[in-house]
Amino acid sequence: MLVRHLAALAVLVFALAGSAVAQTPAPIHVATIPIDSGSEAFYAKDAGFFEKNGLDATVQPITNGPAIIAGVVGGAIDVGFSNLVSLEAAYKKGVPIVLIAAAGLYLDAAPTTLLMADDGSAIKTGKDLDGKIIATNGLKNIGQYAPAAWVDQNGGDSSTVKFVEMPFPEMAGALAQHRIDAAIIAEPTLSDARTTTRVLGKPYSAIGKEYLIGAWFASAAWAKAHPDLVARFAASMRDTAVWANANQAKSAAILAKYATIDPAVAAKMTRAKFAEALTPALVQPTIDITAKYKGIDASFPAQEMIYQAAR
């Protein structure tokens, strides 16, 4: 009898130990740019969505997008965030990356980036920008391709436009000093810039009404070796997207903490929305516009770079 009790006890202890191991969160190293559209990882950490999906996530803010791509490919980072145009260009150059979860959306009804001119400027249409200077925060990226498309769709010729790179906070002053003729300005800078500038248009809408501008990605090798972690991370981002889209006041406080934005500014600015699923239809518009303006040599099906678990 004693032997049977001891055996049963041993089985129970083993089962409990196995259960504890199974429930131990898996470590994962995530890197993101501390901006609104890349903030889901911060929300997932603080609101408990990583923990809910069995992940013990370390979230590292990195302001340099290429450094995140290099870290992911080199194995120092498991999952990273970047804008889709940069990821698509890297993929076309043979960098072995796969998209594993959706991030920030562009929505025509709630743009977080606008093409602006000085209040006193006479510029109104794309034609008026022929031969002029447009400032953007990044050349050969969506910040250049979107306003180029807007100019072309509004009577102008983007091939005559000179694009210059400039930090967002400097753009309003440069417009007032007539050093540039227009600027593509994003939140949170946009909210303050509105006091001295006016809206020319919604350049991102020249690409489409709704599409992804950012995504979470991993190296192809890491994703293949860790399909369970990919699934848990994707579930965490899906849960976070649902929560963040419905709780912008709560997420604003988290964003202010990690992105070092004034809480008052974070509360009033137009906020990013997040896709709840990663689909080819949401990725394809940025591939096509990047190919059109020669950021990549040719368009390709978005499905090519989206992770698919082995069956």
Task: Write a structural description.
The chain has 311 residues and is an alpha/beta fold. It folds into 2 domains: 25-107 and 210-305, Periplasmic binding protein-like II (D-Maltodextrin-Binding Protein, domain 2, 3-Layer(aba) Sandwich), CATH 3.40.190; 113-206, Periplasmic binding protein-like II (D-Maltodextrin-Binding Protein, domain 2), CATH 3.40.190.10. Helices cover 44% and strands 21% of the residues. It is built from 13 helices and 13 strands. The protein has helices at 2-23, 40-47, 49-52, 65-74, 84-92, 142-153, 168-176, 189-193, 220-225, 227-246, 248-259, 263-268, 280-292, and strands at 26-32, 55-61, 79-83, 97-102, 104-107, 113-118, 133-136, 162-165, 182-186, 197-201, 210-212, 214-219, 273-274. The strands form 3 sheets. The chain has a 5-stranded mixed sheet, sandwiched between helices. The chain has a 5-stranded mixed sheet with strand order 8-7-9-6-10, with helices on both faces. Strand 7, helix 6 (142-153) and strand 8 form a beta-alpha-beta unit. Helix 5 packs across helix 13. The radius of gyration is 23 Å and the shape is globular. Mean pLDDT is 92; it is low at 1-22.
